[in-house]
Write the structure tokens for this entry.
Amino acid sequence: MKVRDIGEQGLLKILQRFCPPDVIGDDAAVLITEPDKSLVVTTDVLVDKVHFSEITTSPEDAGWRAVAANLSDLAAMGASPLGITVGLGLPGDIEVDWVERLYCGMSECLQKYSALIVGGDLVRAPVTTISITAFGQAHPQNIIRRHTASVGDAIVVTGVHGASRAGLELLLHPEVGQYLSEVEKQTLIKAHQRPQPRLDILPIIEKIVNKSTVSGMDSSDGLADAILQICRASNVGALIEWQKIPIPQVFKSWLDKAQAIEYTLYGGEDFELVLCLPLYGALRLVQEIPGTAVIGTITSNLQVVVHDNSEKIPDQVLTLDRGFQHF
Amino acid sequence: MKVRDIGEQGLLKILQRFCPPDVIGDDAAVLITEPDKSLVVTTDVLVDKVHFSEITTSPEDAGWRAVAANLSDLAAMGASPLGITVGLGLPGDIEVDWVERLYCGMSECLQKYSALIVGGDLVRAPVTTISITAFGQAHPQNIIRRHTASVGDAIVVTGVHGASRAGLELLLHPEVGQYLSEVEKQTLIKAHQRPQPRLDILPIIEKIVNKSTVSGMDSSDGLADAILQICRASNVGALIEWQKIPIPQVFKSWLDKAQAIEYTLYGGEDFELVLCLPLYGALRLVQEIPGTAVIGTITSNLQVVVHDNSEKIPDQVLTLDRGFQHF
């Protein structure tokens, strides 16, 4: 069944099943905001063949990933999600089933975090385009910014980097995984298809750290990009120790060092948080959150340097040019 | 200069000039919400050659119209705008100048209502796509819904209908305007290019009407569509008097009756409000707001009937099928 066959009203009827009935049905969605809360808003656009493709991404995974990317932005700000709006541009000959499965994936990810699809727009377009705007709330003093990193702060990552990029490679070129076990392959592929926004970190930070000392962002565009963005916004530099960055265990036997560094620093879409805070708090986070690690220190010299303790490779100075550029 | 030439970072630098510096620069935008306010969210997607085209729409007008459509949705809910996010899908060879002019148009419309561009996303896409999400706030008891129209309510429109559609026709086929004066033509064309969201109506409603008695929506998809949507949501019908609908003066000499009815009822994009409320309040609105008129009454018989007092045409029963369908 094509979208063209059932028209806008028919498609709307199907998609409204995914939305709370008391919120939808008017010109806009209404959410009660509580006193002393900040509204946090973020938006992402995904385009068929640019950001997802049928080869690597089922419609459910495309939906999950689109939502996860937005929720990750909220997590990076210290905000709890309220809901999302979905703007869909669709060619007339797209299967209705594809759209429904996309919404299933979005709903699945949202449900995990008690967030809702509260509205959207459906239009005809020559290429499938998914625009998601997510909004959340936070106490104003709990918001995490990227421009407040201080010299001497420890740099913490909340999990492994490079896994999502490796998973994508296995989907695009299955032959590169010929010496990996099925479990190893599926772990990496799942990291790519079903990334987890780290909203679980927020209550832990709130409990054990002085929030006003925490800065950071998520690593959606790569670990290197996140560190560089934080440093640029805070007018500081960083010294990263390569050996301290958590990477998938299998990288050590499977990839040569250059490839491992490439995936880990520039791969992107791991959707972990990169946080800067005083060492004492950082070590408490490492204790409380499995997989978390201190990977370096904020410095005053404005460069971001990756140092290899094994001294097999010279120090690398990271630059934004190597990150993902959209054009 | 093509977008490809300056890349994402270059384009971002240009577009950030349109955003408040203390709100942008992180993973998401933060807005302080006040106590006892509801958050109202709406979203629209516009696609090149589907929703706008170079023939009829300059980039400034495309930007203005995209923002106006979203602000009109907020007005229809009784909400004051806070800001918007903009998701842009752009081909690499689009002129940077086009994008900047688009933002100029968006900013111009937002400034009129003290709203801001608080964030966005820029991605590569084979076709230009503009996704706007607007959010506003309202006291929960002041929100206007479309499902609460009551039998006996007067139906009010806040201005003329058909002008935008006529303006589009003049842009597409200038020859149809050969017997119109330059002022007449420009008035209709401006109605199409620079529609005004009726946020100016909200304080007046608040002042002179019991808000809990008001239902309604905007007429973005046409006057017929608005009345039908309200009636369907409220499980009522309506009797509309054709002679009472404000239309551009020039329609009477310029268009035959069938054409005038077509433009007025189904033209769309006039972005007026269609409100249902008790007659006493309706007449007070008409007194206070120039151009406003009572055009009919909510009935119990579930049909929407347009009656012509001149009896030159028989009563028409409106249906949704004739409205704008996206697929």
User: Anything to note?
Assistant: The mean pLDDT of chain B is 89. Chain B touches chain A through 76 residues (CB under 8 Å). Chain B is about 35% helix and 25% strand. Chain B has two domains: 3-140, 154-322.
